[in-house]
Write a structure and sequence with these properties.
Layout lengths: L2 H4 L6 E5 L5 E3 L1 H10 L14 H12 L6 H14 L12 H13 L3 H8 L3 H4 L4 H8 L1 H14 L8 H14 L1 H16 L6 H21 L3 H15 L1 H12 L4 H18 L5 E6 L2 H11 L8 E7 L2 H14 L1 E2 L5 E2 L12 E6 L5 E8 H9 L37 H10 L5 H12 L4 E6 L7 E5 L4 H9 L6 E6 L2 E3 L10 E6 L18 H13 L29 E3 L9 E3 L11 E5 L5 E5 L3 H8 L7 E3 L5 E10 L4 H11 L3 E7 L6 E10 L5 H9 L4 E6 L8
Parallel strand pairs: 4-8, 9-13, 15-17
Antiparallel strand pairs: 1-2, 3-4, 5-7, 6-7, 7-8, 9-10, 11-12, 11-13, 14-18, 16-17, 19-21, 19-22, 20-21
Helix pairs in contact: 2-13, 3-5, 4-6, 5-6, 5-11, 6-9, 8-9, 9-10, 9-11, 10-11, 10-19, 10-20, 11-12, 11-13, 12-13, 13-14, 14-16, 19-22
Length: 718
């Protein structure tokens, strides 16, 4: 454990003063001092029992009315149960839960979280049982300790990581405080990683970089995220880290330049009558490194930013107006995260100003409440279950639960709900791991509105998501039958990329046996959509139109038809096990069309209309046709293309004509208008193929439609 975490009185303090006049212990500066080598010796063993007083002091700074007796009892149990245990660094093990708890106390965590943090390793590493924790500290503490214990039970080996983080997500979804404890636990472990072998340091640092840092970002815990970034930076990029470290050390006067700008800003705001606290906020190592890559040579003001704290939201915009009036603003740097908060609760105004001497300083403007949330994220929300009505059917805590017995966390972010949904569908740990890292790599989130007005009225998606992603987010596996969408009231292809604030209405087919096209994967961004589509295609390989297998000249037995196609088909085959016979999607033959078949991969037979262009192509490749014939079934499936002039209500009139004929829409695609012409493609299930001619005539009679024909080309997304 680092000396700063053991004895925070020895650490540098922030100029900001909290309530009751206590100097704030800045976690970023503690981590910065540790990285720069400004460490003290380990705390004497006889000081350990007093260490809980630092936690209590930090806790009282945020929660003046907190009952500290429970922390004292938790510390006594943790210290006695861990007595005789030591960390690899040689320190008494109790220093670890103390350090983790101090980190959370500085972030403003409530008493229950701190109590669970002190005890988070007792059930796993000592003879203390979960029932004992429950008896002495209650159901809430026991629930959190159990959640952290489940996360920690698997070793952090390379093969174990995916399942470990899958369990972490499940535990976090039930109560975000579990992840808060885990993040603080990882931060202290990263601070003391120097006692491990270099290869193990690198492995743990990579996992921290790929998963835990993005999770900290999404949970809004910036204070933990930035220090974790610096610690990972030092391990994985030692040369760049040393360059950045030297750059900071060689510019000790950088803060003075920002300090001079801060004085000017303070004077401007004082003259305007706006009560504000102006602080110089040094950049952490990774931030300095990124700025250097972006701007090249750094000036004094590039080593930090100004932080302006005010009392009310309206004051933020008042400060912005004064700064843009009295200084030269850099307009390209302005961002308003108050009117449009980030998905991790972050709110602030970002701007940059040029001082009279030409120095450009970046400025963050926020209220004290926004600042607390910006630093601590979900930790600042406290107990997410306060005020919830008890559920008599819920064992233990009595709080509302889901159908699978998990507790319901009302503060669960939308992105976390999405992760929990698709992680259950991931077929294997590798798929889960890959999808998790890809999802966490997404920096932005959008919100789209459901046009049907049902609850919940919004869908949260990563930036760049399409209608396909919205369909699976709203309907789950039922989205396999999606045949189109309306975006902001207008028909749009399923491949349409959605924007923040769009209104989406998904159109589903009545035919539950229809499924997604392989092309959907080209437009699916979310893991939930990709996993669901891939699973369906693997379960229905005939839908992916795989390349043909070599021709086998031996006679083969007659095989059954693919019943999803409706019409009954038979193929004359001898000497091979039965396979599936299905109509080709390019020409969708129906009785009484003249047909021919070809063997494809997996032993299936694909049936084409005799005049289909694919037949000539296969024969040119030397493929031998298979004799196929229609059975006695009257039903069938066909794809029709309607060419028309664009007009309002056209889609409704066409679908009405189709419905009047008794046909069911399996899938549909509406291409974007071109020169006032619109092309509609429908795959239809006909109860009696003898009515096909009448159906096509009814569609041609729809005003604006000038041609209806059978499809002769593969279908696109839709």
């Amino acid at each position: 454990m680092s000396a700063e975490a053991t004895n925070p009185e020895a650490a540098p303090t922030d100029v900001a003063v909290r309530r009751r006049g206590r100097a704030r212990i800045d976690l970023r500066r503690l981590g910065r001092a540790a990285l720069l080598g400004a460490t003290a010796g380990p705390a004497p063993r006889d000081r350990l029992p007093d260490a809980i007083s630092h936690v209590a002091e930090a806790h009282r700074a945020h929660h003046p009315e907190a009952d500290l007796t429970v922390l004292g009892r938790a510390y006594a149990l943790a210290e006695s149960s861990h007595r005789g245990q030591f960390r690899k660094s040689g320190e008494a093990y109790i220093t670890h839960p103390l350090a983790v708890t101090l980190i959370l106390a500085e972030l403003g965590a409530e008493t229950t979280t701190l109590t669970a943090s002190l005890l988070h390793d007792t059930v796993e590493d000592t003879e203390v049982t979960l029932d004992q924790v429950r008896r002495e500290f209650g159901d809430e503490v026991a629930y959190l300790v159990d959640g952290v214990t489940k996360v920690e039970k698997i070793d952090y080996g390379a093969a174990a990581e995916p399942e470990t983080f899958r369990k972490m997500l499940v535990a976090t979804g039930s109560d975000v405080r579990v992840m808060s404890i885990k993040l603080a636990d990882r931060l202290h472990n990263m601070r003391t990683l120097g006692v491990m072998r270099p290869e193990k340091q690198a492995r743990i640092a990579k996992v921290t970089r790929d998963v835990l840092i993005p999770l900290a970002e999404r949970l809004g815990v910036q204070a933990l995220k930035t220090e974790l970034e610096d610690l990972v930076f030092a391990i994985l990029h030692p040369e760049e880290y040393e360059t950045t470290r030297a750059l900071i050390a060689d510019n000790p006067a950088a803060g003075q330049e920002l300090g001079a700008v801060a004085e000017q800003v303070t004077a401007v705001l004082r003259e305007a009558g706006i009560g504000a606290e102006v602080l110089v906020r040094p950049r952490h190592f990774v931030s300095v490194h990124r700025v250097r890559l972006k701007r090249g040579e750094l000036r004094g003001c590039d080593f930090g930013r100004l932080l302006v704290l005010v009392a009310e939201d309206a004051d933020c915009y008042g400060v912005l107006g004064e700064l843009h009036t009295c200084f030269t603003p850099v307009i390209s740097e302005f961002k308003d995260f108050i009117a449009a908060p980030k998905f991790n609760l972050y709110q602030s105004l970002h701007t940059a100003i040029a001082a009279p001497d030409g120095a450009v300083a970046e400025v963050l403007i926020r209220t004290h409440r926004m600042h607390k949330v910006a630093e601590a994220g979900v930790v600042a929300l406290g107990n997410p279950h306060l005020g919830q009505e008890p559920d008599p059917a819920a064992p233990g805590t009595g709080l509302p639960q889901t159908d699978d017995g998990e507790r319901v966390d009302p503060t669960r972010p939308g992105w976390l709900s999405r992760l929990l949904d698709w992680q259950q569908s991931a077929p294997d740990p590798d798929t889960f791991w890959t999808s998790l890292r890809a999802d966490l790599a997404e920096d932005d989130e959008i919100t789209v509105f459901r046009a049907d007005g049902s609850a919940p009225g919004t869908i949260s998606l990563p930036a760049g998501a399409s209608c396909i992603d919205a369909a699976y987010a709203q309907h789950g596996e039922a989205a396999h039958a999606c045949l189109g969408a309306r975006v902001n009231g207008r028909l749009a292809p399923l491949s349409t990329v959605l924007g923040d604030g769009d209104t989406v209405q998904l159109l589903l087919a009545q035919d539950t046996v229809s499924g997604p096209s392989p092309q959907w994967l080209d437009h699916a961004r979310t893991p939930a959509a990709r996993i669901a589509i891939t699973g369906w295609l693997q379960a229905h390989p005939e839908s992916a139109a795989p390349p043909a297998a070599p021709t086998d000249p031996r006679p083969q037995p007659s095989v059954p038809a693919d019943r999803r196609s409706g019409a009954e088909l038979h193929a004359e085959l001898d000497g091979e096990p039965p396979a599936t016979v299905r109509p080709a999607g390019c020409c969708t033959p129906v009785p009484p069309d003249e047909i021919t078949g070809f063997r494809v991969r997996g032993g299936s037979v694909t049936v084409h209309r005799a005049r289909c262009s694919a037949v000539d192509a296969m024969r040119d490749l030397g493929r031998e046709p298979v004799t196929v014939r229609w059975g006695e079934t009257a039903q069938g499936r066909v794809t029709l293309v309607a060419e028309s002039f664009g007009r309002p209500g056209l889609l409704a009139d066409l679908t009405e004509a189709i419905a009047a004929s008794g046909a069911a829409v399996v899938s549909a695609n509406v291409e974007p208008p071109s020169e006032q012409r619109v092309r509609h493609t429908y795959t239809l299930h006909l109860p009696d193929v003898a009515g096909l001619a009448a159906l096509m005539k009814a569609m041609r009679d729809v005003p604006g439609v000038y041609d209806v024909s059978r499809a002769r080309h593969p279908r696109g997304v839709g």
